[in-house]
Structures are given as C-alpha cells and as structure tokens.
Amino acid sequence: MKKAVTFGEIMLRLAPEGYYRFIQAETFGATYGGGEANVAVSLANYGIDASFVTKLPKHEIGQAAVNSLRRYGVDTKSITRGGDRVGIYFLEKGASQRPSKVVYDRAGSSIATATKEDFNWDEIFEGVEWFHFTGITPALGDNVAEICMEACKAAKERNITISCDLNYRNKLWSKQKAGEVMGELCKYVDVCIANEEDASDVFGIKAANTDITAGKVDHEGYKDVAKQLSDRFGFSKVAITLRGSISASDNNWAAMMYDGKEYYFSKGYKMHIVDRVGGGDSFGAGLIYSTMMGYEPQDIIEYATAASCLKHTIEGDFNQVGVDEVKKLAGGDASGRVQR
Amino acid sequence: MKKAVTFGEIMLRLAPEGYYRFIQAETFGATYGGGEANVAVSLANYGIDASFVTKLPKHEIGQAAVNSLRRYGVDTKSITRGGDRVGIYFLEKGASQRPSKVVYDRAGSSIATATKEDFNWDEIFEGVEWFHFTGITPALGDNVAEICMEACKAAKERNITISCDLNYRNKLWSKQKAGEVMGELCKYVDVCIANEEDASDVFGIKAANTDITAGKVDHEGYKDVAKQLSDRFGFSKVAITLRGSISASDNNWAAMMYDGKEYYFSKGYKMHIVDRVGGGDSFGAGLIYSTMMGYEPQDIIEYATAASCLKHTIEGDFNQVGVDEVKKLAGGDASGRVQR
Amino acid sequence: MKKAVTFGEIMLRLAPEGYYRFIQAETFGATYGGGEANVAVSLANYGIDASFVTKLPKHEIGQAAVNSLRRYGVDTKSITRGGDRVGIYFLEKGASQRPSKVVYDRAGSSIATATKEDFNWDEIFEGVEWFHFTGITPALGDNVAEICMEACKAAKERNITISCDLNYRNKLWSKQKAGEVMGELCKYVDVCIANEEDASDVFGIKAANTDITAGKVDHEGYKDVAKQLSDRFGFSKVAITLRGSISASDNNWAAMMYDGKEYYFSKGYKMHIVDRVGGGDSFGAGLIYSTMMGYEPQDIIEYATAASCLKHTIEGDFNQVGVDEVKKLAGGDASGRVQR
Amino acid sequence: MKKAVTFGEIMLRLAPEGYYRFIQAETFGATYGGGEANVAVSLANYGIDASFVTKLPKHEIGQAAVNSLRRYGVDTKSITRGGDRVGIYFLEKGASQRPSKVVYDRAGSSIATATKEDFNWDEIFEGVEWFHFTGITPALGDNVAEICMEACKAAKERNITISCDLNYRNKLWSKQKAGEVMGELCKYVDVCIANEEDASDVFGIKAANTDITAGKVDHEGYKDVAKQLSDRFGFSKVAITLRGSISASDNNWAAMMYDGKEYYFSKGYKMHIVDRVGGGDSFGAGLIYSTMMGYEPQDIIEYATAASCLKHTIEGDFNQVGVDEVKKLAGGDASGRVQR
Amino acid sequence: MKKAVTFGEIMLRLAPEGYYRFIQAETFGATYGGGEANVAVSLANYGIDASFVTKLPKHEIGQAAVNSLRRYGVDTKSITRGGDRVGIYFLEKGASQRPSKVVYDRAGSSIATATKEDFNWDEIFEGVEWFHFTGITPALGDNVAEICMEACKAAKERNITISCDLNYRNKLWSKQKAGEVMGELCKYVDVCIANEEDASDVFGIKAANTDITAGKVDHEGYKDVAKQLSDRFGFSKVAITLRGSISASDNNWAAMMYDGKEYYFSKGYKMHIVDRVGGGDSFGAGLIYSTMMGYEPQDIIEYATAASCLKHTIEGDFNQVGVDEVKKLAGGDASGRVQR
Amino acid sequence: MKKAVTFGEIMLRLAPEGYYRFIQAETFGATYGGGEANVAVSLANYGIDASFVTKLPKHEIGQAAVNSLRRYGVDTKSITRGGDRVGIYFLEKGASQRPSKVVYDRAGSSIATATKEDFNWDEIFEGVEWFHFTGITPALGDNVAEICMEACKAAKERNITISCDLNYRNKLWSKQKAGEVMGELCKYVDVCIANEEDASDVFGIKAANTDITAGKVDHEGYKDVAKQLSDRFGFSKVAITLRGSISASDNNWAAMMYDGKEYYFSKGYKMHIVDRVGGGDSFGAGLIYSTMMGYEPQDIIEYATAASCLKHTIEGDFNQVGVDEVKKLAGGDASGRVQR
C-alpha cells in the first residue's frame, strides 16, 4: 500500500444541528476535522496508507480526536500526545442568502504550542511517497512554521513529493506574514493547490476579471494565475478550484490544473449543498490520490473535482466517499438515481 | 436606547421535526411565537429596547413563553400573568408541492380572555416611540379589540408612531368583521403593512391583474393598492410584501413601500426556504427599525426586505439576525460564502 | 367501503438520519415498508378498506411491522404469524450528485419462506374488489411465486380486478427468470404499472430514444412501450411513470396511461425530494384508487401522478397524504402556500 | 374474542424528554393517553377486542390520537369525529425528592363538548361483555356525565359488567359534586377500583390510620374502606391500589381486593420508576382482563398488581406488556434477568 | 425587589447525553454554568433581582452565554463584552461506581484576561444588598483576584453583605496560593460557605474523624471546623455541606450552619442523582435567599439544604426550582407524589 | 506491546433509546458488539495490541462494523471480507421488574457461513501471546466449530495461552451438542471463564445450593463447580462470575477464581445498571489483561471484577474504561465522587 503523510491541526468541530443558529443551539454535533486531517481521511478512504501527524492532549477529548481518525482507517501512531487543549471551531450552517459562519477557538491548542522535539520526521517518513500540508499549519505560530520547514526539508531529502494547499486564514496571520513564510515553504513544494482567492491573498497574484462574490469565474484569469504561481515557485503542478457561489445552498463547482505545459479544466457541477466545509480539502485529496496512482492529467482534475463535488453532500469535514463513487461521477453519471 | 412596544398573543408552537407530517410525529419542537412577539424579538435583536405586552398564565408553560422572550432580550415586565392557557399552534413544514399546514388551538388563551384592567397603558408607554400591533390582536375577541383601541388612543395621545400589519386570519373572524374593526383602528395607524392578500381580505381593496397562486406579481397593481390604502386611512407609509410562491421550498420575495408621494421597490430574492413562518413579521420589524433609525425610503424597503429574506433561512418564528447581517444582504451580498 | 388486498413483503427500513452515510450512522430511523404494503397504506389513507397479506414472525419486531400498518388503518387480520425474521433494508439518503443507496438484508424472511398453507385466499378475498401485487413478491422465491399465482387464480375466479407493478429487482432474480415468471402471472393481470426501465428489464420491451441516466424522456417511445405491453398481455390499462433524474435532490416527474385506445399524459412536476423511496408505489396506489372510484382516464393519470409527486415530500415509504391534498395538486395548485 | 368497551377522553401528552423541567424543554415527546384509553390499550395487548369511545376533532391532531390507538390494536370505529380540539396535558417527570408535575389544558376538548347524539350505545355495545369508565369522564361536564349515565343504563340493560375507577381529579370538579354524580353512576357499577385517596375524596370514606404522604399503608384500614364502599353501592368487587411513595423515583406497590366475602392482598413490589403515569389504569385493566378470563380472586389481584408494577417501567401512558410477561412476574420472577 | 450581585465566570458546558462517555459522544448538550452564575440564576428564580458580573466575548458564543442568563431572569447589563473566548468545561456524567468526570478548557477566557477597567463597581452595586463570589473567581488569575478584592472593598463601603463559597479547585491554583489569596479576601466576607473538603484544602482546617471517600460524616468534626473558620475570620455565619457519597448515583446530603453561637443541622436526604454539578452553588443560593428574607437560623439551613437536594434532580448547572417547591420539601414532604 | 487475538462474531446491535420497548421504537441506536469483539476492545483500551478475527460483508454495514473496532484501537487487518450479512441482535433495555430482552437475527451471517480457507492462523498468530474465544463461536455452526478447533490447535503449537468463556446460548445449540463440541475444544483451553449457569448448561456441572433467580449466591457451591471444571479439563485457571439479580436495574456483582490450588473471591459490588450487556465479556477481558500483566491471583480477580462492575455503567457492548479507572475501583474507591 502506498504511504502518505499529512501534518497539521485537527480540531473539535461544534455545530448546531440542521440550520439552527448558534444562539438557538441546545446541542452541538461533535465531530473532528481540519485541513490536513480531512485529506488524510480521504486518502485512507481511497486505500492509501495515510498517516496524520499532529499533537493532541492526553485527556479524553484528545483521545476522541484520535479515535475519529482511527475509525476511518488513518494511521495515528505518529500523533504526539501532550499539551493542554484540542482546538475548537464552532460552525453554523448557512442556507440560501444566509452564509455559514465559523467562530474559531483554537489558540493554545497542543499543536500550536508544539516544539520540534515532538516529531521525529525520520521515523514518520519511513516508506512514505507523499507529504501534504496546508497554509494553516505554519500560520499556527512561528514554532509550527519551523516544524513545517523541518518536515519539508526531511521530505525533500527522501524524494517525497510535497503538496501544499495555500489555504489562507486571515484570523491566523496577515497577508504579508503569510507571503513571507509560505514563500519559503513553497520552495520545497511540488504540487500547489489553491482556491480562487488564495493566490491573491498569500502572494498578491491576481486572477484577472473575476468577481468572486458575484459568482463569476473567468477561465483565462485562472490560467494566468496558475502560470504565475508555477513560474515563481517552479511547481510541477498547480491546481485551482473554481467556486461559483450562487447562495449558501447552491454553488457551482469546477477546477483547473496546470502542469507547466497544458491547462486542464474539469467538468462543472451545480451542487445543492449539504455541508460545504472541507470542500477544498477533498479536492486536494482527490488530486493527491489520482496523481499517486498515475492518472492522466485530465483524469486527475476530473477525479479531484468529482471527489470534492461529492464532499458537498456529506455531513462533517471528512469526505466519506470511495474510489468507485468518485469515478462514477467523474465518468459523467450525476443523475443521483437510487443504487439498490 | 429607543423604545418600542408591541401588543398581541404569543403562542406555543408545536412542530414535528424536519419534514414529518403531523400524523408521523413522535416529538414536537416547542418554540414560541406570534406576529407581535416576533416583531419584538427582531427589534431587540437590532438593539431597540423592545417590550412585548400580553397576558400569560402563571403556570410553567406561561413562564416558558416569557422566558423565550427574555432570552432574546425582550422586556417582559408589562406581561400580565393570569388566565388559563397559552394558545397553541401546530405547524407542519411543507416541501416542494406539499404546502405547510397550521392547526390552531388558541381559543380560550389568557390574552383572548383578558380585560382592560389587565393593562396600564400609561405605564407601558412611558418613554416609548413606537407602538405596533397586527390584525390578529383585535381578531382574538371584542374584548381584545377594545384593549387594542384603548392602546391606540393612549399611544396617539403621546405622539407615539403606530404601525399595524393587517394580517388577516380567516379562522378568527369574517372579512366583514375584520373590515369594520380594522377600519376603526386604522384611523390611529401611521404605518400600514400588508401582504399581497390582506388589503383585499380586510378592506376589499384589490390588486389588479395579480394571481397569487400562480406566483405572478404585478407592480402596477400593488402601487394602486398602496395608494388606495393610503388615501382611505391617511397612512404616512404603506408597505406591501410581494411573495411569489414557486413551491413550499422555493419562493421569490420582494416588497414595495409608498410614502404618499413615491413608490419604492426593493430588490428581489429567490429564496430556498428553511422556515417560512414569521416572514411577514420580520418584514414589519425591519421596516419599523429602519424607520425609527431615520433611514432613507429606499434603504427602509431594502432593509425590511433583506431582513425578511433572511428570516426564511431561520428555524422558528423569531428572526434571529442582526443589523450587520441585514445590511450586508441589503447592500447586495447574497452569495452565502462562509464567514470565518 | 370498497375493499382491496395487496400481497407482498413488508421490511424493516433502517435509515441514518438526514444525509448521514451508513458509516457515519450512530442511530437508524426504524420504519417499515415494501411495495405492496406501501400501496395498502395509501389506499387506507384514501378511505379504501385495504388489507395487507404477508407472513411475519411472532416476535416483537414482527409485531412492530404489524403495528406500523394498523396505525395507518390497514387491515392486518390476514397476516400470518410465524417464521424467523423480518426482512431488512438499509437506506442511505442521497443528495445532489450523490445517489441514495439501498443495502438489502432480506433473505430468509418469514414471507420468503412461507408456504401455500399460510394463506386462505377464499377468506382473504371475501368482498374484495381489487388485488394488487408487484414483481418483487414472486421474486422472493419459487414458493412465493406459486402463492402469488394461486392468489391470482383465486382473484380471477371472483372477478377481482388485478393490478401488478412490474418493479424489477436485479438483486432478487435475473431478467430471464423474471420474464418467465412474470409472463405467466401477467396473464391474470388487468392493470399493469411500470417505470421507465421495468418493461425492458422484465420483458425486453424497449422505449425508443430514451436515455434514462441523462434524464431525457421521449413521449413517443413510452407510447410504443405501453402499446407493446398491452398487446402482448391484453392489459386493460398500462401506466408508466416518467422520471427525469436531474440529481438525487431534484427530479422531474410525470406519467402516462394507455387504455388500449388512447394515451393520456399527466402534467409534469419539478420536485425537490424529501424521500424518494415509495414513489412508484404511491403512483400505483393513486391509479388503483382513482380507477376504483370510476375517475375519467385523464383524471386517473393526473391523480396518480399528483399523489406520487406528493410522496416525494414525505419521509418514509408510506405516502401520508389524503384525497383532498392529491386533488388539490392534481387540480393545478402547486404553489405550496401555507394552509392555515 | 371477548369484547370490552371503555369511554372517556384521550389527550395529547406533551412531556419534556428525560428529567428536563418544563421551562428547560425545547422539545416535547408527543404521545396520547387518558384513563380509559389506557385501559383499552392494555386490554387489546392482552388479546381482548377492546373498543374505545370518545369524540375527537377531524383535523390531523385528532387523527394522530386515533392512530395511537389503532397502532396498538384498539378498535376506533366508535370514535365520533368533530369538535374543536384534543385535550392536552403537559407532563414533567420528577426524580428523587422532586415530584412529577402535570399541567392540564383540556377545557373545550371535543369530548368535553360532546352531546348525547354523538354516541349510539346500542351499536357500540353490540356483542360486548364489559364496560369501563373512570371518574374523570363524568367530571368533564354535565353533558358528559349524562352521556355516561346513558351508557351505564344501556350497558345494564344488556347485562354488561360495568367497572369504574373512581379517579378523583380536583381540577375538574369539587369533592361534593364528584360525590353526587359518582354516587348516582355507581349504582350501575359492578366493579369499583380506587387508589388510596379516592374513596375519601369522592365519598368521604376514610382509610383509618394511613398517612399517604409518609408512605405508610395500613392493611386493616383498607379492608375497612373496601367494605364500606361495597356495602354502600353493592359492588361485586372493590379493588384498591396501595402505593407507598418513597420518592418520585422509588415507590412501593401492592393492592387488595374485596369480593364481598374475602379480602385478597397481592404481593408487594419495590419499584424503580420509569414512568408513573397510567399506573392505576394498568391496574384496572389487569383486573378487568383477569376477571373476564375467570381467574381465581387471588390470581386476579396478583395479575392486576403485577401488570401495574410493570407499567411503572414503561414510557408513556399505555402499558405495553403482554399476558406472558405479567404472568411471569405475578408468578414470582422479579429478578429482571435478560431474556435472550 | 431586593438586589444581589454575583461575580465570576460562566462557562460553556459540553456534556455527552445520558451516560455516554466522552469518547462515545457524537453530540454534546450545550448549556452554560459556573459557580456564581448558578447562584445568580437561583436567586432570580426565587424572585431576587440578581445581577451577574463577568466578561464575555462579543461573538455569538458569548451572546449565547448572556442569553442563557437572561432566559432565567438574571440581569446581564453589567456583563462587559470583549476578550477572546468563553471558558469551556466538558462534563461526563457518572453512574454507580463510575464517577463523573470534568475536563476543563478555561484558560484564556475573557474573564480570566479581564482588567480592573472592565468593571465599574459603583454602578454595579447601586441599590444592592448582597454580593457573592466563590474561591474560583480569584483563582482565575492575579488580575481577577485583584478585581475581586476591589469588589469586596467597594461592597464593604456600601455595607453590602458579602458571602463567599470557598470552592477550592486544584487545577487552578495550589493550596498554598489559595490560602494566601482567600485569607485576604475572607477578611471582607460575612458569610462563609464550604463543602466537606474546602476548609482543609484552603486553610488547612481539618474536620476530625471524617473519611470523605467512605461517605462517613461526623457531626462533631464539622462543628469544630465551622468554629475554627468563624474564629479565624470573624464570619457572622459559616455553613458547611455534608455530602455522603454512596456512589455516583446515590448520595446522602445534609448541611450545618454556625452563627457564632449555635450549630444548626438540617434534615438529611437520600438522593438519587440526576445531575450533581451545581449542588454546592444551589446550597449557597438557598442560604443567601433565606438569609436575605430574614428566615430563622434553622429555617435557613433547612431551606438551603432542601434547595440543593432538589438541584440534584435537575439537568444542568442551574437550579430550576422555585420558593414553593423548596419550602414544600424543607417542610418535610419528600414523597415525590405527582402534582396535578 | 503484548499481542492478543480474539475470534468470533461481531453483530449490529439495534436498541430502542432509553427504556422504550421494541414496539414503541421509532429509532434504534446502532452499535456493534459480540462476546469476543467486546473482549478485544477492552484489551485495546488497556493498551494491549488486540486483534479481532471474523468475517464481514464488503458492503457499508460490514465496513461500519470494522470501523467500530478501529475507532477503539482494535487491529482489524485479520478480518476477512465477504459473505452476505452482518448478524443483528435487537436489544430492549429492561428496568426494575421488567427484564431486558434480546431478539437475535443472526442466521446466515458472514462468519456463520465462513470456511477454513477464510483464515490463515499462521499469519494471525504471528507474535501473539494470548488467544480467546467463547462458546458462542463454535455454536454458530459446525463449520465455525471446525475453524475454532483449527485455531486452538495452531495456538497450542505456538504456546499461546488460550482462554474460553463458556457463554452458553440456547438459541444456537442444544445443551448436549454444546457439551460435545465444547468438551473437545476445552482440551486446548488454559483459562476457563463461566457465569453462574454455564457450567451446568454446557457440562452438567451444578453449583450446589444456588437459586439464581432468587439472587442467592453460595460460595461453597461455586468453589465446588470451579474445582470440578478444573479437574475435568485441566484448566490452569477457572473464573466464575457471581451475579445476584435484584432487578433489571440493580444487581449484586462479584467473582471468584480457582488456580488449581487456592480459591480467590473478589469484593462485592451493588450496581445500579446503565447497560448490562457485555458484563461477562468485560470480566473476561479484565482477567486476561491482569493475567498477561502478571498480577497476583487476588489482584487478578479484583481487577476483573472491578472492570466488569464498571462495564455495567457504560452504554453499549464495549467496556470503555481504562486501566487507571479499574485499578481505582479495585483498590476500593467506589464513592463515585466527581473527578475534576
């Protein structure tokens, strides 16, 4: 089985049920998620031996986070136990014209207060082919950025392919700081993943003629952004998701990939949304899987886009779909007919 | 803080969860609501010192109704305690071609059996700028109509602005009776709010060329209705909501306002509905708030319409949104993108 | 009261709540359903004295299945008690591009292991006007196919009208076996019901120019299929449902009927789906009811289609709607406006 | 199958889940129950053809009440449909030192506003052996008391055995009024059932030396009460339940019966309570069933007491136990060992 | 209405439903509580005008904490809004031999990072008779201890009675630090409340001959402790709760009070526990209320003990009982009989 | 890490929530469990590298069973995938005098239809110290009994310690058949575990003077049984659980062990039961763990008994407790005081 490693934070996600607002909630659904953990679960679902690296407290809430990963087949043996708390995010699901809302309560989490000594990358990368992180990980603090850099260097030494989802979070750091830190890390990255805003937020690279709020997407603009990213950092692949936000309930979805030579655009999907969080991560995981398996470029972008389209129909951060389901949709069957 | 008072009935709302029909229900969600209470909660959410006046039994179900208002910041000190029961309405949520259904069980409620002695309007109106009621309140019985008249007179003496949502309910009284009683009360009213049917049901004023069931809306017809209402009763403002009912799941939504001189039409919204009940009340509250705050006429109708558009995405009668959220939508951002 | 009998299997349906996938589920909603049971409940809801015939174990799970029918007014006195288990099906509700999924666990159920001695058709058919079964019943095993044949013969002797929904299930038998067995049974059938695939699966009769996956429906093709079915078996009526599958969340829906002379097409509906299972059964029940009541052909197909359109908004297998509701929709009011 | 009829009110019971207080509740469990309906369900569970007579509104809440009875096999064909509302009672479950609390909202219910014309006792009593009502029924109003009297007379003419549970409710009528009305009705009653307070409340007959609040029970006192009741009204049987209230969570339970000659005392039970409501009704049903089946006096009182002991472990008003389960406990096996 | 103020932290309480362990939980019940907030709610329930002082973030989770207090009538106008997070505690309910478990996640909460400028005690204490805090408040940090000291001085200047529940929390500070800080604060305290361990943990004052784990309670030992506390700090009243821990499900409960002259012991209760958290706070609130109302010493200790006995039957931190209920139990009726 | 293997069936457990009866249930809690799987989870919770061996279908319900084990750290790599169905058992929780009820629906499960080729015991036993099965496994069918025998022989060859819980199930086989098959298997067993009935049911070895139903336990009788078992099969250890069934809610619990020389009796516990199923399995797991860790005999029996005492407070089949918790109780702290 092919091995992959992802590194980052897994948080406790607390969400009112259905469409209740925070101030109406008497219960919270308690699941766990985070950019890199979501990717690890997806890879495990596709049959990859995926390991997630983080630090979590020894108490039961930390254990529950570990168990949420084990349940879906992720290898958790490289998770360091210690520190004080599991980061939390509160999620309120939007509908129609009312947007979803996220309240973060992640400061002081075990991973945000981790040190280099917490991780032995030589052991972690034993037999591994792929390493993935996102822009959230180094944003957790200078200490974590350093650990991330250490991981990248260790991976590079072993010829492990490195992918990074830019994933800019303005609550965690400024655009300037993000640009500096990510600029250094991206030197080690092979495959760069971004959504329609990240390239601009992190590196000031703009997609021409695209008004995200209005849900307009301009293909030529994205090609330009992908080429700029590739040229600046020498990525072997740049993939960009193209979300058209009609409302909180309905989105258009597509993606493109540039491999330094050609531009590949996926089919587009009109999605009725069950749970939008983790949409980008599911795309990244699809891209990683199909690349690891040696798919053709067009098949890679179709697989990644179909995988993330399906994610929008799944409750929770984790994309609970299998290879057959993704392939069926990527192959063109979007009719949603009952499978008996 | 500006003060406003609303007067009417708050009922226990019993609704099967999700899309279950009444005869399938093993549990009922228990919330509280009613036209004027809904307006009070909205005003409190917008930062107005809103007081709700009614009568409720002393027992725990009455107390729970009081608490539902206190929780969201409504002043409940003018609620008289006594009488036998809290009115109830059962609500079954519709979907697609199946309409929502309401079964009323409100006869004999404390407010419906209240007397003039239960309310001291001099105390209630101390420092108040605005008084609001709907056509449901006087429809509860002749005694309540009289109390309502007394409140209107007391308000008028203090130069309190009075608004009324016509809100015709055919289970409570005939069109003829409604026309008589509302005709008298409307003499005191400054701001009249109505939906696409009320003017016709209560006062026989028809919107030309509009077939409500078919979801067609004719602007010229509504202008005519607004003008007729304004001319007959001397309202300083008439506002009419324009609902286009595509199905129980999808509605178009817009509104217009006439200030005796000009007609102002809001933007239109295509809504995917979470909970349709209280839609009109949230419009009235938006209108009252933006008028109290001195908004320009076009901003008033945009604020009121955006507020009520958002209400359709909120579970329960109460419109749990804040000023910033309404302004964002009224300002044109309907994309529903996640707010992190 | 007019009497009807249906014969088949009722299963325990276990479904994760909302849109959770099987592997996320910590609870299952437990309801009961099955093609012929669903028809019986619909008929009872319409005021027909409907009796459901099956075999169920004596234990409490068997009793719960009986109770689920009694609750909605179905006569259960002809249900034989005995055998080992209630058949089960697991249902995962799809959304958007993700299809619903059914996992069957029905082998060895009491009805699948029943014998001729378990049913006394003379008693069962006392005073009955209509007998209905579907292609699922004989597919449960040769023993059940024989019982079904016995029932058909007994019904025919009493001049009871017999309807059959072809309802092909590839997990239960091959197309070839289905064709053989159903071919014999259909000789006794008066009214044949089918969906867009059944005629092809069971009898090799193809609808020209129709790509079901793509959601395209071709009227001329269906007319041809209906005529072929009618010609081969001498059905007095053939009715075919025409589902256009946009996604798991949205379907178009219509139907047609051929009475040996004319073709009648219903209005079409764009449905937002709450629960798709039992859609075909609700159509059959609407067809049987309106035929029993002597409706005109066009009214029959409109009633049956409107009834099944409404089913898609109801949780569970059973179509919990009444005659007035169906007629209102069949009559053209699809606006979904709140019924107070 | 032996036939029995009970007559009274069935109410919608709204109860917060678990041990939540009314003012904490966001949902209510919605079940249905009432003294005589509870008896009818028990009898149906024991295999008696039990019919429940009442009046219920035509709307869906009325229908849900009907369905709650049909589900458990009660014959509902003698229920008259009409009137305005289903009576409601709110139930808060107590624990330890905190008592359970009931808030009634039953005024104006369909049965409370019924007239003699609503019931045709000749049809209702066709083939019936036993008629049961409780002191709640005539307490609903003079009209209902008259209907009750009419029923008693019709039953007596047909030699139907009549049982009555005194069941005094001080919210419905005064002790004096109860004494007058019940005194007349009891002239027709054969079997009288009472709890430790009823005889005193309704007829002023006191159990000597018994302090109910303190949980003390004095056998000699009860014998005296039973004899007084029997002597005054000529009952063939008087049965009294003996509840020792340790706390809201733990009760002692026993009962006695007097047949005009001998006194029979049941075994005593220490019960850990799941749901106490309907405890008395389940005793009555056990008594009726075992008497109808011709049990020996000691077996009757053991059966009735064991049945009602089990009721205290069942959620809801209805006693969902079968004859085998009652007999097993009455026979002495109270160990609660898992039945595999 | 008499006015009282309490000061401290209110936390989000996240508890798995029923008896599920943390690692089994898929949902958390979300309520709010904390020593001083719990006292404020109790006082409001008893009719005191109770104000709770704290600092909470401006976001929706902070608002939900505010609303949880408003709902039950607590005045929240003195709550400062700002800071980053709401403190959290996770609660796992124990049963039988398995203890309840609390995981704190409260570091960095808004109140723990508050400054003196956040509170204007002159305004807060306007018209106030009583000020209450617990040993948890100063344990949140030196800054909060200073604010607490400032509050005590301001209260003392206005002759406001000050009560303090020692409430030692070893996760927040050492015994030594607690002794120092509390020693200074206690100089301002009039009424001291403690459980069976606090006096020892905070001040090294031991109850002779008492083995808490074994559930033994020795009256003479407690008298000695109370006297030592009173003598050292000059408290006008010392009250100590006496918990006998049989298991997580069953506790014995009693309390004593020393007023510098006499020792008063309450009745004892055997409690079957619904929710044990907040038991001590409900005792404090009962003591404060009954003292404010001028009860006799024995009545004070009976009221406080009965109030806290009832708390053990209530879900959540808040003691949702009224004066009548407490008096009924304090008066000796512990039978738990249904209140209709 | 020490390695252990258990072999048997894991079933889907469907249980109504709380104390609802089967016929009241609208939802089933869906968990997974079975004698040997329960032991594996316990061992994993104690830090043993525990592997569970079985066969499960490839579909999602099979996957959910696998995930339920992975979630709690059990190694599932030796689970063979294939076959048709996951065995099911329905569980109704009893209370007080009403016993819990189990309805099995396990015929035809994947493991019951497995063949020798499905398992490679050489691979499975790599590095393993302990092998455990129960009397349920061979009772599933002759094929499974043969696989079990093969496993025993393979284990014996590798000097793996073998434990067996007799666990007689009368629904699966007769006492005679059980005696024959188990008699052969027990020749390979080192550690024999039994409850108070198994020795009699399987081998006809009676505990003198013990009436299980009456909850009486006689120490001398058990010593005699243990000695007979040990003498007949040469077990190195025989452990017997001693359950005293007061009611479905309250049990006494203790155990004894005989090591061929001495008899060791544990402390006794009075348990208030949350979930009784898996009580015996948790005892076995405690015995295996403490034996593997080299505990002294008295400590072994105390550990095993305390572990299983705690199990009775845990929802679900799996005993979700850790070593520290068990040791604390075994060490004598049963007070259930809150752990903060």
UniProtKB/TrEMBL annotation, chains A, B, C, D, E, F:
Record domain Carbohydrate kinase PfkB: where: 1-311
Domain of life: Bacteria
Family, per entry: Belongs to the carbohydrate kinase PfkB family.
Pfam families, A to Z: PfkB
Cross-referenced InterPro entries: Carb_kinase_PfkB-like, PfkB_dom, Ribokinase-like
Record keywords: Kinase, Transferase
Entry's Gene Ontology molecular function annotations: kinase activity
Name this protein carries in UniProt: 2-dehydro-3-deoxygluconokinase
Keyword Ubl conjugation: no
CDD domains according to UniProt: KdgK
Signal peptide: none
